[in-house]
Write a structure and sequence with these properties.
There is one protein chain. 34% of the residues lie in helices and 23% in strands. The chain contains 18 helices and 22 strands. The strands form five sheets. The chain has an eight-stranded mixed beta sheet. A five-stranded mixed beta sheet has the order 9-10-13-11-12, with helices on both faces. A four-stranded antiparallel beta sheet has the order 16-17-18-22. A hairpin with a 2-residue loop joins strand 11 and strand 12. Helix 1 packs across helix 4. The chain binds adenosine-5'-triphosphate (ATP) and magnesium ion. The site of adenosine-5'-triphosphate has 23 residues, from helix 2 and helix 4.
């Protein structure tokens, strides 16, 4: 009996492999440019015709190849980059499989022109995986690989190519991501004879972003730079106030390799929570460096994804780094020459304030911390960091607090600022602990409509964690025995009613988790309002509390809490300069 299993001829095997490595012209560009980078090129010219469907040509000034190597390069599993499986751990070159050139060659007409030094070189021509011709040529050191008529011998694959414009866009994306990673290298890119892209080598990420996407795009970004254990994360992310106002871009590199990673993007986005409206997503350029054995780069045919040993940890580090970048964004530059203290760990000043104290006693403190500090503990234990240097503050229009500093005047929106303070406090309460509550001398009775009643039931446990002690009383009547104490003039009944009303109209089917939405809503309803007069002590307390938040410059909707007017700007307006 003849065997039904046969080893495929290698040309067929290569075509099958090509399906994984070579999806479209952009993947050819990527593989050729990566080879050029691996060969130590400092300058790479990419020329494309008809969206890469007719021709992709990549020229480099790298090491070049000998005649033998140029022929061998087209053989399957021929690589100069690793010698054994052990070399795979921590492999620093882009390539290591020895698969790209044979795969591309199996579905195109390919020409390699290469020289080890200036002068004598080799040209190898091949088509559909078979070498047709090897000859001498004269050229400078380096290599040029031309890939013509991609999929000419695989009509089924060729049918799947999109129009030239669409293929071209993918090519631009591929080149962009390589050019962002390898900023030391000069790149040019041209389409049908027209140069569309030329970036010089040796620049910072920000400069490279400006060179590729324009300086306006670069100006929208803040720096991320953080080290956590063996992980280093650096890059640029969009300012919350800019998010959603222009197209979004994502660039992610891990150990110098551009990759896709939805988990890391999600972690970075999570850092924006409460600073930008739901549904809009920030532009991110992030580069991670991790220990070689904490990441496996050999899990995807085009090496476009990686696997982490401890993904959860990496994602937390990314989230913290981005959050810190956003939080310190205006550090020292926004609220006076104060050093923002690191956010205090939540040390619950859990005090059972059993009685509602008379108003007169509370006049000095709009904020729970200061009250609690007075009531229960000697000074120093408050959450409001005492080292904050609070400048003299002036209330304007019962809406803004104003102060001056060396470089101009700063206005703080009192409601937004208080909302930010309360939001972070409520989030801590919901996520890790108790919130100070006050027991009401006379319990409140609330009659709710059915929708509000349902909203309460759906959030009951969260309300309790926020400090609302509530008993159901049949139907939709609630007895409220204690309430959180965000400030002295807090109107618990109104806050609860408004919160429930807005939860019933909760169209916000955003990604924000339920407890976060509740914290934001209660913070909004509980915060002091525009129009509330604030005493100097209250303003000082609010300033200090805001300075201790993680994101002082933004309210929970992503709007600014702080506006800065520089002396320069004022002098310009007054015609002094
Ligand atoms: N532009 C170039 N300059 C110098 N040598 C090159 C160039 N392109 C390819 N080579 C040589 O040809 C070999 C085969 O290239 P190929 O891309 O097929 O495999 P690889 O880069 O080793 O691995 P991978 O399949 O993961 O990309 C490389 O290992 C390298 O030695
Ligand atoms: Mg390669």
């Amino acid at each position: 009996m003849t065997s039904r299993i046969a080893i495929l001829p290698s040309a067929v095997a290569d075509q099958i492999a090509a399906g994984e490595v070579v999806e479209r012209p952009a993947s050819v560009v990527k593989e050729l440019v990566e080879n050029a980078l691996d060969a130590g090129a400092t300058s790479i010219d990419i020329a494309v015709e008809d969206g890469g469907r007719q021709l992709v040509r990549v020229s480099d000034d790298g090491s070049g190849m000998s005649r033998d190597d140029a022929v061998l390069a087209l053989a399957r599993h021929a690589t100069s980059k690793i010698r054994s499986a052990g070399d795979l751990v921590g492999v620093r070159s882009f390539g290591f499989r020895g698969e790209a050139l044979p795969a591309i060659c199996s579905v195109s007409q390919l020409e390699i022109e290469t020289a080890l030094g200036d002068g004598a070189g080799t040209v190898v021509r091949a088509a559909a995986g078979a070498v047709a011709d090897v000859a001498d040529t004269a050229r400078r050191r380096g290599t040029t690989v031309g890939v013509g008529r991609l999929f000419f011998n695989a009509p089924a694959r060729r049918k799947f190519l999109r129009g030239a414009r669409s293929e071209w866009r993918s090519i631009v994306e591929s080149v962009t991501s390589l050019a962002l990673v390898r900023r030391d290298v000069r790149f040019t890119l041209s389409h049908d004879g027209k140069q569309v892209f030329a970036v010089p080598g040796a620049v910072s990420l920000r400069e490279r972003i400006a060179a590729i996407h324009g300086s306006a795009a670069a100006a929208r970004l803040v720096d991320v730079d953080d080290v956590a254990g063996s992980i280093h994360i650096a890059g640029q992310v969009e300012r919350p106030s800019e998010v959603g106002t222009a197209g979004r871009r994502i660039h992610l590199a891990i150990n110098g390799r551009a990759v896709r990673d939805a988990g890391i993007v999600r972690a970075a986005e999570a850092a924006y929570r409460s600073t930008i409206p739901a549904g809009v997503r920030p532009t991110l350029y992030l580069e991670l460096t991790v220990a070689a054995n904490d990441v496996d780069v050999n899990v995807h045919p085009a090496k476009a994804e990686v696997r982490f040993r401890d993904r959860w940890h990496v994602e937390r580090v990314v989230e913290m780094a981005v959050r810190r970048a956003l939080g310190t964004m205006e550090s020292g530059a926004t609220l006076g020459r104060v050093l923002w203290p690191a956010p205090a760990p939540f040390t619950s000043p859990m005090v059972d304030v059993e009685v509602l104290r008379p108003r007169a006693e509370l006049d000095d403190g709009i904020f729970a911390e200061s009250q609690i500090g007075d009531a229960a503990e000697p000074a120093g234990a408050q959450q409001t960091a005492p080292e904050i240097d609070v400048p003299p503050l002036l209330q304007l229009r019962r809406t803004y607090m104003m102060f001056e500093r060396d470089d101009g005047v700063v206005l703080i929106d009192q409601h937004s600022a208080h909302e930010r303070v309360l939001f972070e406090r409520f989030m801590r309460a919901l996520e890790c602990g108790e919130t100070p509550a006050q027991r009401l001398l006379f319990p409140l009775t609330l009659h709710l409509g059915p929708a509000e009643g349902d909203a309460f039931d759906a959030h009951r446990e969260l309300f309790e964690r926020l400090g609302f002690e509530v008993e159901g009383f049949g139907g939709h009547t609630l007895i409220v025995r204690s309430v959180p104490m965000p400030h002295a003039r807090f109107d618990a009944e109104r806050c609860l009613r408004e919160t429930l009303a807005s939860l019933t109209g909760d169209r916000d089917a955003s990604a924000a988790p339920k407890h976060q939405r509740l914290a934001a809503t209660v913070a909004c309803k509980a915060a002091i309002k525009a129009g509330d007069t604030m005493s100097p002590a209250e303003m000082r307390a609010l300033f200090a509390a805001l300075a201790s938040t993680q994101l002082p410059a933004h309210d929970v909707h992503g709007r600014s809490t702080v506006v800065h007017l520089s002396w320069d700007e004022l002098e310009r307006r007054f015609g002094r300069r």
